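Q: My labmate handed me this sequence with no annotations at all. I'd like to see what the chain might look like in three dimensions before we decide whether it's worth expressing. Could you predict it?
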Amino acid sequence: MTVHFGSPGREKRKPAFSIRQLVLLFGLVAIVLCAVGLTLKLIVRAAEERPATAVTVAAVLCLVTAGLRSARRRRAAGRLAAGLSELTHHAAATSAAEQTPALAPEGEEGPGTFEADDLAAMDPADFEQAVAALCERDGCRDVQVVGGAGDLGADVIATTPDGRRVVMQCKRYGPMNKVGSQEVQRFGGTCFAVHEASVAAVVTTGEFTQPAAEYAEQCGIRCFDHQSLVAWTDGSGPAPWEAEPPSTSAVPGTGQGADEDITGN
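A: Here is what I predict for the chain of 265 residues:
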């Protein structure tokens, strides 16, 4: 094993005792003590000869000392007040931000803010989403878009503000197309028995044939045509679950009368 040794250096020399420095130190101490004693003597003499002046000087000294202390306290209190004000402002801003509802980004529309005229231009999938957005706008919860293959006639399912289960079928038709009785019959066969609807409605941008409207009335299905949909959208009319319920004189799914009117696909 190799051990490395440091190169020898110069040994540090301890400072030699200096009588001269000691004498100078004692001299300075003696001068300071003499100065302090002379000052005290002059103060005492002045106080004996002119007590009023001594009292005034003492009072001024006390006031100055108290002022310095008060200034320090005011600065500390000011810093504390500023910190509390900033903390309060931050808490208020945070609370306001939590309570303020989130807004849609500029140029984008939130749920249910589209125009009624936009509905007819949507494709069927977008129309279902628009109907779901209207449900959310009017206070429904648990809103689901379930349209598609195997939906068994239901496109939008939601729970109304008063706790009822609403099941809707959405038909985005043009002005020349009408919802026929066969379509309403298919929906009537599943909306209550399969989907357990408390409120069943067919919502369309078009119209209903007379047999379809009659069957819906017999089964208790609410028909929302273009006019009713526009009123629901702009807020001038009721939502499907708020509309006057139709007569329920027949058992759902047993209506008769397929029609030969123009129907959509």
